[in-house]
Amino acid sequence: MPMLQHDGRQLYYEVTGHGEQPLLLFNGLTMSTAAWTLMAPLLEPRFKLIRLDFQGQGQSERRVQDCYPLTQQADDAAALLDHLGIKQCYLAGLSYGGMVALHFARRHPARLSRLLLASTLAWSDAANVYIAQSWSAAQQAGGPGLRFDISLPWLFSSRFFVSYAQMLPDLRTIAATVDWPGVERILAGIREHDARSWLDEIRVPTHIIVGSEDRLTPLYQSELLHQGIAGSTLTVLPGAGHAIHIEAPAAFAQQISRFADA
């Protein structure tokens, strides 16, 4: 099991794929490296795929602290590139991973050739804070089952519930395996996120994507990113919700590949 020893912690990572171009994928809030299962076969023929579990996720160590800062997660990813001997990569961040990616681009700009931000936030606004509080309250009141039910309308589109409802029992089972104390520390880091004042510092070629039915990280957030990052491009995926790695993996992978050629 590959582990990076960094800053007194162990961080789990995976490297797969057959391409020469390194593609670093940053997980969403409750994801792990396993959450990219639907997308990996679509990306591995072209890219050297690098996935890691942030602190508080999956198989990485969960140090007990008040929060896991986005800057710390970004620096951990830079340490992984050092460990793998990779000077520069293409980075795609989904949701929480997009927030980490913004901080990575600010702190380690020379390490990036391209940046793709998917379903993410320019800043943690008041609505986002209340959504997170509702998830925490549901976890406390009814455990992972109630938390899962509360989160569903924020994560998926109407089309998904009609066409792919058979996936929900498996997704519920996966949700029950999430270490919630670790997620709470991640959420504490998200509450501090506000990139609006320094988006103009990001100079790497950047592409932004968001689902037209994304209620958790709505279009206005992607428009803020687009307006703030000079030369960036924005694509809205019709009919897609927030969790595009599950409900629109082919479209997500296509956006990643097309931007690699842009």
Give a summary of the structure in a few sentences.
With 262 residues, this protein is an alpha/beta fold.
Describe this structure in words.
By secondary structure, the protein is of the alpha/beta class. Strands 1-2-4-3-5-6-7-8 form an eight-stranded mixed sheet, with helices on both faces. Helix 1 links the parallel strand 3 and strand 4. Helix 2 crosses helix 3. The mean pLDDT is 97.
Radius of gyration: 17 Å
N-to-C terminal Cα separation, in Å?
35 Å
Percent of residues in β-strands? 15-25%
Mean pLDDT: 97
Task: Compute the number of helices.
Answer: 10
Q: Briefly note the structural class of the backbone.
A: alpha/beta
Low-pLDDT residue spans: none
Order of adjacent strands in the largest pleated sheet: 1-2-4-3-5-6-7-8
**How many runs of DSSP E, i.e. beta strands?**
8
- Sketch the topology as an H/E string, one letter per element: EEEHEHEHEHHHHEHEHH
Main sheet: strands, sense, barrel: 8 strands, mixed
Described by the principal axes of the CA atoms, the overall outline is globular
Helix content: 40-55%
